[in-house]
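Ticket opened by: R.M.
Priority: normal
Category: complex prediction / small molecule

The reporter submitted a protein together with S-adenosylmethionine and asked that the result be attached to this ticket for the collaborator who will pick it up next week. Submitted input follows.
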Amino acid sequence: MTYLVLDSIRNQTQDALKEQFAFDVLMGFSAPSKYLPSKYFYDAKGSKLFEQITGLEEYYPTRCEFEILSKVGSELAEFIQDKPFEIVELGAGDGCKTKVLLSKLLESTDAFSYIPIDISESAMADLIVSLKQSHPTLTTHGIVGDYFASIRHLENTSDNRKLVLLLGSNIGNFDFPSAKRFLHSIWKCLNHNDLLLIGFDLKKDIDVLTRAYNDKKGVTRAFNLNVLTRINNELDGEFDLNRFSHHGMYNPRHGAMESYLVSLEQQEVHIGALEKTFEFNPYEAIHLELSHKYLLSDMQKMANETGFNVLKNWQDSQGYFADGLWQVNKDFPESAY
Ligand SMILES: C[S@@+](CC[C@H](N)C(=O)[O-])C[C@H]1O[C@@H](n2cnc3c(N)ncnc32)[C@H](O)[C@@H]1O
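Result attached by the on-call engineer:
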């Protein structure tokens, strides 16, 4: 079991990565409505904090999808008759739910390999170590890289049939047009009849949603504030974390949970690497993350519009979360996209 850091990341020196981070911060803080890209959540500390979030009482998505994946293993195996095959996971994180699925599949066949992909090198290193213990016979090749660069590797791995996993509510972090573009770019890298198992957080009681993103222990708050800590540590920023509060709120028009950091007062913050000072008005927000919620009909529409046929939907017992099994349809005309 190994992992590979994609050349596109490895070849970027630390300086170039820092430059990209600095550029994104500059763009985000110079915009009329300030924002930061959510991929910067996941340094080593951010990945650990996310793992803690998944265990929180209020954070239902992991529990619900765990329940689904614990049930679907043998049924899923029936959809993959071609052996050997490859399981490629985008944004694998700690893989805690995937391990259940892998165990269930291993009860039917061991003719598959597992290729987790994640932007966080520390998350990947931890995942490889834990898989060595939990699934010592499984052939695993991890890739550290950005989704967008990594999916091109789907074309090169082998001609074996592929099952791509996009679990959690990773797809929810994209707005609808970007989600469609992302799914269609996955479609382009796959062959006819390849499979995608994709998680969707469903629309539900707004209080349940709001609680999930505003936990009592403040772990989500710490996760969001960690982005400012990263700016302090990596870009010589001077953020005082006590002068920002975290807000997770549901926007019913967009059907999405939105995460913000809000400046508690008028303040100026210098960022050394940018040689620039940014002004924050009282109550001014920095937008950090979107997490779109879906109806089953939205999932169907998304599949239809990106070149996939829906084979099956599974839901947890509360109806909070759904995983769809989609099949690549290469008869889908590119012009229809
Ligand atoms: C919300 S977590 C979900 C983890 C796991 N799939 C789950 O369901 O629990 C998102 C994961 O995707 C990774 N990630 C976020 N943006 C990414 C990107 N642009 N490319 C690759 N991985 C990314 C993060 O490092 C993190 O491990």
